[in-house]
């Protein structure tokens, strides 16, 4: 199943420490050799400040008790740096954490800086030190501290680039802390900032969006409202194009999000188009399921792919929790398409395709019919479902089409009236005429409305 | 007069050379005289007399003055003139011929009087016949005429006109002569012998002339190749003289040098020059002497060519003494004279070639070569293309410059370098130095001239192929220039030359390119420079340009890259490149040539899409181009008929300049065939669906195709299909009636598919598509007649598997194209009852009416918008807003004229392309709905406008 594993593709767009949970997950799933994963972990952490933990892993990997000398040295260095940074930022931290100061801060960053400088002797250098301290803490795995520092920094700093960087840092910290609520807001903020910021090159912006796509998945698949959030964010035109251009594998998550979120069913049509476009560069069982169902109408293949999907999702860090949900909803979509196309359905065939036992399947179908208020009946004797496809009779069609006309004419009429009165104020005679006509229309409009309501 | 003398002397000394014993010293004398003093009319006459006397004494021992009768005298004169004319014709000296003809005109009546009824001398008749042949009967074609000097050409035309009238009087004689030309000559000889009138000049001149006619191949060659052979003649002459005067061991070297120079073979020349350079200090005086001789010879040759100048103004070209020391001064003088009206360009070239011969070191060589290249390009007449021999000479010179630069890496030529005004060139000792000049300009010009010549040569003649052979050496030159620029790191020029190289590569397939590269590496003698095949080469060149070049070059490179990808069936790569580059958004701001390239890339993209079976995409890419009716202009492949407006000559000239050479062209017939076939596959089911389903859009998708189909249907009598278009129309009709076998056969019978590399594959693909579309069309057409259709039956009818039929039907049902549903148990497609109701006439009319009412409301709204916008049509932004306000795109589709086509058919590529493109552009905040289609239209419009302006 390693061929469908996306970890390797996603790592370039993630922070080192964000990759860690992914590797942790992989080591439980036997996709890769345990030793390889362990090696990757050591490699991953070697440049961070988490010396102790790295040391432990190193021991585990090489099966030794002693660590090379440079581990101690590095450890000392890190601690020294931490202390130094803490000293440097002490003053400004005290100032900021003072509620009085916090209260007097405004929107205008320059103004704030001036205020701090005049009243509390805070220099821009000290603010910058906040950033460094935050970064250092993050590197050592002290995410709470880093989130605070970087928040302070992003409020005070006037450097747009560093602020953006601090926002990323804060988001990472929050994700690793598991503060999904805060992280969710951070993501929305970041999205806004990226859209607004004028980047030097389109490539840079593309990269920022790519990061956001990847990072946000941590949040969206954990936050209660995440499944709405992911669809809303990923389906934005700019992110769709990012997915198409740079990271088509994100489609798997988008599909999963749309499938598991029945309220966003309307998105399916659009999603199908995207999948079709990207099919030449990326496909996996999840997208192939949609392809088979909505493009080729090959139900056998769709059923086959659905089975594969279960396995793939189970091995995916983000989607593991949603496997059952996904399968359940996928069946629903399956049945929906199936019912829409057919007039008479062989129940055994459908349940077989849905990978269910006969009895269980029958129950499921009956439940489906009840829930969705489909116009369908089950014939137990023949063991079939009979659909009553409802087509609009021509009368209904004509009524529907002409109904909108009345409203549109009214709007137009009103607009002309408004324009007429504003333009022709000077001409009393005409105005009078219009008023008269307007009153006539007033009456008419009431009747029209009544018709519309009926 | 003097001219005549000279040509007379030519043959004379020729006879000397052939029978070397008789008059070598005399010839020597002649030559000496020739060199020392310019032959003026008077001295020429003198000398002629002397020459005549000399040869007289040669041939006849007893010198005896015979008193001639008037008849003989006239006879002699006519005879002499006639022969003169004949010779002049052979040598293409029309001015001389014309002058002699005038005199002849005066002499003949006198002779006729003296002859008193006797027949005219046959030589005269022969002369007349010959004149007539070579003038009236079109002995010279235009090209040759263009080579003549102005005065010669004028005389030629004058003669031509006069000949027509004049020869009427002698028709009979000429006809007689024509009947047996050889005999008459012999008769002439015979007749003369017994007549007992020995005429010195006659004897003496008749011999060589006969020789020339009968055996002398060389003579014919000499006569034909005109001035050049003259040169060579003079060259050998002066060579003899110089060798005699020198009488040293220098002799051989000198000879080599001259013959080299005369034949203009740069390879040898180079060698000689080096030799000279090396030996320079040791034998300075001797070199100098040789140089003088060379210059004299050059001057002589110049004189020969520019004879008219001497005759008219009496101006005598100076004979500058050229040595390495004075080279700079001479060079400066030449560059000063450049571009002036009075400058004789040919002289300049010869002068420069002389200078090149004496250049003492690489630095001087470079300087001279640069001047020489410019002079060579100057020499070509503007308007038409450069004559081929001149072109190849220029190419040789450029190659020489490049190899000089390759051998002397310390010399670099920059466009921005300071002018090197140092006279100490002679003492140049290989230190690094920069010269001012522009190698890229030379390359550009050379390549442009090559293209221009290809534009004007008829591509269906062997000449074109002949010309195409030069493309490989040209490519080699470009590659060499590229390596030169790389070595010296001249970014700007490097980009341009790389683009030139790409232009030679992009339109060819890898296979062809591979051969070209191979031939090129063989030619340049180096190992194949490119690893990884030509695709990699193109990739490399393009990425270099993406990184380094200025935007315009980058766009061109990108378009060529797209074209090349598409050519190799890499459709997705090509399309993504096109979409991501956003070229289509600013296509209308580009220059016309780049727009042409853009159109070409699109057309090729359409072909590529077709080849991989993406019919819808192929249609989308080609529809704008093909329905414009200006595809020839848009692709710069010929000038289409202008029905509406007349082009001024300047515009037409501009358009001609833009034309692409034939071998680069995209086959328009193939393009049309592909376009019509895709139109057919899309349009026929759409028509069928529109006929039965009131919901379906009625507006034609491809107007061009509809028009053709309508026209075809109106025909009273239809024969079997002949051309491509007929085939497609016949196929379309068969498809419309559900007869997929006939439809397939018609399509597969089209011959032009064989132009596509994967012909069989494409035919199979088309057969498959036709099956599917036939099924769809059948269902649309007959849905009202059926209650239910069995899947098995359909599968059998259309030769498709049951599963395929099932999937197709499912898709049609799901997308609401067909109001029906599948019955899984009994395996039939059951049409719904609603369908029957719809078929009632009244109900259909009611639906149509409601549609029209909606359209009416739309128009009202639009009119109102127009009014509040102050007469301005509502802009894009407003449209977008208004659509949003009105809900799910009610007016959107109507405005496009094909609403469901994009929204409804989820599988249709139109929506997809638009969609995708939209996404790309949204990234930059664009809000155009389908920017690709829109802007493409814009681009083409612009192009069309550009084309006409």
Automatic annotation (TrEMBL), chain A:
Identify the main location: cytoplasm
Report the residue ranges that make up the PCI domain in this protein.
219-392
Q: Keyword set for this entry?
A: Cytoplasm, Initiation factor, Protein biosynthesis
* InterPro entries in the cross-refs: eIF3e, eIF3e_N, PCI_dom, WH_DNA-bd_sf
Keyword Cytoplasm present in the record's keywords: the answer is yes
The UniProt entry's GO CC annotations, sorted and at most eight, read:
eukaryotic 43S preinitiation complex; eukaryotic 48S preinitiation complex; eukaryotic translation initiation factor 3 complex, eIF3e
Is the Protein biosynthesis keyword given for this protein? Answer: yes
Q: Which GO terms describe its biological process?
A: formation of cytoplasmic translation initiation complex
Please give the Gene Ontology molecular function terms for this protein. Answer: translation initiation factor activity
Question: Looking at the record, which segments are called Disordered?
Answer: 418-454
* Feature: compositional bias, Basic and acidic residues: 418-435
* Subunit relationships: Component of the eukaryotic translation initiation factor 3 (eIF-3) complex.
What protein family does this chain belong to?
Belongs to the eIF-3 subunit E family.
- Function comment: Component of the eukaryotic translation initiation factor 3 (eIF-3) complex, which is involved in protein synthesis of a specialized repertoire of mRNAs and, together with other initiation factors, stimulates binding of mRNA and methionyl-tRNAi to the 40S ribosome. The eIF-3 complex specifically targets and initiates translation of a subset of mRNAs involved in cell proliferation.
Q: What is this protein called?
A: Eukaryotic translation initiation factor 3 subunit E
Origin organism is Coemansia reversa (strain ATCC 12441 / NRRL 1564)
**Gene name linked to the record:** INT6
From TrEMBL, chain B:
Q: Name one GO cellular component term.
A: eukaryotic 48S preinitiation complex
Transferase is among the record's keywords: no
Skewed-composition ranges (Low complexity): 16-25, 215-226, 938-949
GO function terms (MF aspect): RNA binding; translation initiation factor activity; translation initiation factor binding
Q: Where in the cell is it found?
A: Cytoplasm
Sorted alphabetically, the Gene Ontology BP terms of this entry are:
formation of cytoplasmic translation initiation complex
- The PCI domain is annotated at 662-836
What spans are recorded as compositionally biased (Gly residues)? 881-892
User: What Pfam family is a match for this entry?
Assistant: eIF-3c_N
Q: Where is the composition biased (Basic and acidic residues)?
A: 61-76, 262-279
The record, for SUPFAM superfamilies, names: Winged helix' DNA-binding domain
Keyword list, A-Z: Cytoplasm, Initiation factor, Protein biosynthesis
* Comp. bias regions, Basic residues: 157-169
- Report residue spans for region: Disordered: 1-76, 156-287, 867-949
Whether Transit peptide counts among this entry's keywords is no
Which InterPro entries would you find in this protein's record? EIF3C, EIF3C_N_dom, PCI_dom, WH-like_DNA-bd_sf, WH_DNA-bd_sf
- Assembly and binders: Component of the eukaryotic translation initiation factor 3 (eIF-3) complex.
Protein family (similarity comment): Belongs to the eIF-3 subunit C family.
* Described function: Component of the eukaryotic translation initiation factor 3 (eIF-3) complex, which is involved in protein synthesis of a specialized repertoire of mRNAs and, together with other initiation factors, stimulates binding of mRNA and methionyl-tRNAi to the 40S ribosome. The eIF-3 complex specifically targets and initiates translation of a subset of mRNAs involved in cell proliferation.
Q: Which HAMAP family match?
A: eIF3c
What is this protein's name? Eukaryotic translation initiation factor 3 subunit C
Q: Which organism is it from?
A: Coemansia reversa (strain ATCC 12441 / NRRL 1564)
Q: Which gene encodes it?
A: NIP1
């Amino acid at each position: 199943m390693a061929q469908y594993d996306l970890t390797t593709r996603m790592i370039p767009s993630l922070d080192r420490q964000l990759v860690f949970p992914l590797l942790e997950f992989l080591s439980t799933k036997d996709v890769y050799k345990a030793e390889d994963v362990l090696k990757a972990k050591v490699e991953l952490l070697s440049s961070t400040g988490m010396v102790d933990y790295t040391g432990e892993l190193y021991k585990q990997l090489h099966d030794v008790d002693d660590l090379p000398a440079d581990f101690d040295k590095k450890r000392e260095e890190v601690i020294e740096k931490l202390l130094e940074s803490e000293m440097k930022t002490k003053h400004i931290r005290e100032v900021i954490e003072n509620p009085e100061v916090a209260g007097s801060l405004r929107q205008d960053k320059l103004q704030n800086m001036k205020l701090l400088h005049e009243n509390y002797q805070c220099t821009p250098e000290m603010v910058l030190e906040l950033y460094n301290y935050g970064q250092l803490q993050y590197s050592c795995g002290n995410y709470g501290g880093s989130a605070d520092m970087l928040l302070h920094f992003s409020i005070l700093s006037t450097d747009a680039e560093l602020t953006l960087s601090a926002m990323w840092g804060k988001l990472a910290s929050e994700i690793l802390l598991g503060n999904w609520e805060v992280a969710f807001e951070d993501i929305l903020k970041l999205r806004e900032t990226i859209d607004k910021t004028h980047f030097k090159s389109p490539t840079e912006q593309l990269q920022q969006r790519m990061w956001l796509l990847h990072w946000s998945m941590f949040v969206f698949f954990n936050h209660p409202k995440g499944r709405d959030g992911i669809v809303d964010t990923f389906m934005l035109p700019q992110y769709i194009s990012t997915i198409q251009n740079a990271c088509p594998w994100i489609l798997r998550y988008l599909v999963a999000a749309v499938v598991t979120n029945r309220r966003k069913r309307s998105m399916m049509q659009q999603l199908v188009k995207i999948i079709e476009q990207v099919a030449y560069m990326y496909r996996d069982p999840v997208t192939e399921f949609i392809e088979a169902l909505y493009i080729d109408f090959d139900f056998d293949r769709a059923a086959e792919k659905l089975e594969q999907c279960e396995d793939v999702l189970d091995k995916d860090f983000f989607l593991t929790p949603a496997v059952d949900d996904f399968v359940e909803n996928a069946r629903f979509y399956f049945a929906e398409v199936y019912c829409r196309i057919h007039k008479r359905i062989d129940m055994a065939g459908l349940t077989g395709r849905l990978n269910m036992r006969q009895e269980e399947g029958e129950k499921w179908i009956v439940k489906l019919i009840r829930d969705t208020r489909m116009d369908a009946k089950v014939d137990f004797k023949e063991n079939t479902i009979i659909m009553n496809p409802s087509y609009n009779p021509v009368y209904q069609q004509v009524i529907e089409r002409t109904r909108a006309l009345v409203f549109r004419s009214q709007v137009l009429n009103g607009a002309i009236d408004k324009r007429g009165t504003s333009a022709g104020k000077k001409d009393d005679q005409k105005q009078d005429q219009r008023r008269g006509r307007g009153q006539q229309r007033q009456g008419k409009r009431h009747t029209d409305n009544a018709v519309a309501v009926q | 007069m003097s001219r005549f003398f000279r040509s007379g002397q030519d043959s004379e000394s020729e006879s000397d050379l052939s029978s070397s014993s008789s008059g070598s010293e005399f010839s020597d004398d002649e030559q000496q005289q020739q060199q020392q003093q310019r032959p003026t009319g008077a001295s020429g006459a003198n000398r002629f007399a002397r020459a005549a006397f000399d040869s007289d004494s040669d041939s006849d021992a007893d010198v005896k003055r015979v008193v001639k009768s008037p008849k003989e005298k006239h006879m002699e004169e006519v005879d002499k003139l006639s022969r003169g004319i004949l010779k002049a014709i052979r040598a293409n000296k029309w001015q001389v011929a014309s002058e002699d003809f005038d005199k002849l005109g005066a002499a003949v009546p006198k002779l006729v009087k003296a002859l008193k009824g006797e027949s005219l001398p046959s030589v005269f008749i022969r002369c007349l016949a010959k004149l007539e042949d070579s003038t009236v009967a079109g002995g010279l074609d235009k090209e040759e005429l263009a080579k003549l000097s102005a005065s010669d050409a004028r005389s030629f035309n004058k003669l031509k006109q006069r000949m027509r009238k004049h020869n009427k009087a002698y028709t009979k004689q000429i006809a007689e002569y024509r009947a047996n030309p050889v005999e008459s000559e012999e008769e002439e000889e015979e007749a003369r012998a017994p007549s007992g009138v020995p005429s010195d000049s006659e004897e003496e001149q008749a011999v060589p002339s006969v020789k020339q006619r009968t055996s002398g191949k060389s003579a014919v060659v000499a006569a034909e190749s005109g001035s050049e052979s003259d040169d060579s003649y003079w060259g050998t002459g002066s060579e003899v003289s110089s060798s005699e005067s020198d009488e040293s061991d220098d002799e051989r070297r000198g000879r080599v040098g001259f013959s080299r120079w005369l034949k203009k073979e740069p390879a040898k020349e180079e060698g000689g020059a080096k030799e000279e350079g090396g030996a320079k200090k040791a034998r300075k005086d001797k070199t100098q002497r040789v140089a003088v001789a060379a210059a004299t010879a050059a001057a002589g040759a110049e004189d020969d060519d520019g004879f008219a100048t001497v005759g008219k103004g009496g101006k005598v070209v100076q004979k500058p003494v050229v040595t390495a020391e004075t080279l700079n001064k001479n060079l400066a003088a030449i560059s000063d004279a450049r571009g002036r009206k009075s400058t004789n360009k040919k002289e300049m070239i010869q002068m420069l070639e002389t200078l090149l011969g004496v250049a003492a070191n690489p630095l001087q060589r470079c300087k001279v070569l640069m001047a020489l290249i410019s002079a060579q390009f100057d020499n070509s007449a503007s308007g038409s293309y450069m004559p081929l021999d001149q072109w190849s000479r220029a190419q040789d010179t450029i190659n020489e410059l490049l190899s000089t630069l390759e051998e002397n890496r310390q010399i670099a030529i920059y466009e921005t370098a300071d002018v090197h005004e140092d006279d100490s060139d002679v003492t140049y000792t290989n230190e690094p130095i920069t010269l001012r000049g522009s190698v890229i300009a030379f390359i550009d010009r050379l390549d442009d001239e090559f293209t221009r010549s290809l534009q004007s040569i008829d591509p269906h003649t062997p000449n074109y192929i002949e010309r195409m052979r030069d493309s490989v050496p040209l490519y080699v030159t470009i590659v060499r220039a590229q390596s030169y620029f790389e070595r010296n790191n001249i970014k700007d020029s490097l980009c341009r030359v790389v683009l030139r190289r790409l232009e030679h590569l992009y339109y060819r397939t890898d296979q062809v390119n591979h051969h070209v590269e191979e031939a090129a590496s063989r030619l340049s003698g180096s190992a194949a420079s490119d690893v990884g095949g030509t695709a990699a080469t193109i990739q490399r060149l393009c990425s270099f340009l993406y990184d380094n070049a200025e935007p315009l070059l980058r766009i061109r490179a990108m378009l060529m890259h797209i074209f090349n990808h598409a050519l190799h069936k890499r459709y997705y790569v090509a399309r993504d490149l096109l979409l991501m580059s956003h070229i289509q958004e600013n296509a209308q701001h580009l220059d016309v040539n780049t727009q042409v390239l853009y159109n070409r890339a699109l057309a090729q993209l359409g072909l590529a899409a077709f080849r991989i079976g993406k019919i819808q995409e192929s249609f989308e890419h080609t529809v704008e181009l093909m329905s414009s009716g200006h595809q020839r202009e848009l692709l710069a492949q010929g000038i289409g008929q202008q029905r509406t407006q007349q082009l001024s000559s300047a515009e037409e000239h501009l358009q001609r300049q833009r034309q692409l050479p034939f071998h680069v062209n995209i086959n328009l017939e193939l393009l049309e065939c592909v376009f019509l076939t895709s139109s057919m596959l899309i349009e026929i089911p759409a028509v069928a669906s529109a006929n039965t389903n009131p919901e379906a859009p009625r507006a034609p998708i491809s107007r061009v195709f509809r028009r053709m189909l309508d026209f075809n249907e109106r025909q009273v009598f239809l024969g079997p299909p002949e051309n491509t278009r007929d085939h497609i129309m016949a196929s379309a009709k068969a498809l419309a009636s559900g007869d997929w076998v006939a439809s397939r056969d018609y399509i597969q019978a089209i011959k032009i598919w064989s132009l596509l590399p994967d012909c069989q594959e494409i035919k199979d693909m088309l057969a498959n598509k036709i099956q599917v579309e036939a099924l769809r069309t059948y269902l649309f057409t007959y849905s009202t007649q059926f209650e239910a259709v069995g899947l098995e039956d359909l599968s059998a009818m259309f030769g498709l598997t049951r599963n395929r039929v099932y999937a197709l039907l499912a898709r049609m049902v799901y997308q609401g194209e067909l109001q029906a549903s599948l019955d899984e148990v009994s395996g039939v497609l059951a049409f719904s009852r609603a369908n029957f109701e719809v078929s009632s006439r009244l109900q259909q009319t009611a639906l149509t009416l409601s549609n029209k009412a909606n359209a009416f409301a739309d128009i009202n709204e639009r009119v109102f918008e127009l009014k509040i916008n102050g007469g301005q049509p509502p802009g894009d932004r407003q449209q977008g807003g208004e659509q949003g306000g009105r809900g799910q795109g009610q007016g959107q589709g109507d405005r496009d004229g094909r609403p469901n086509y994009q929204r409804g058919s989820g599988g249709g590529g139109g929506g997809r392309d638009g969609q995708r493109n939209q996404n790309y552009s949204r990234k930059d905040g664009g809000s155009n709905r389908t920017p690709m289609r829109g802007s493409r239209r814009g681009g083409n419009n612009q192009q069309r406008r550009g084309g006409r302006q």
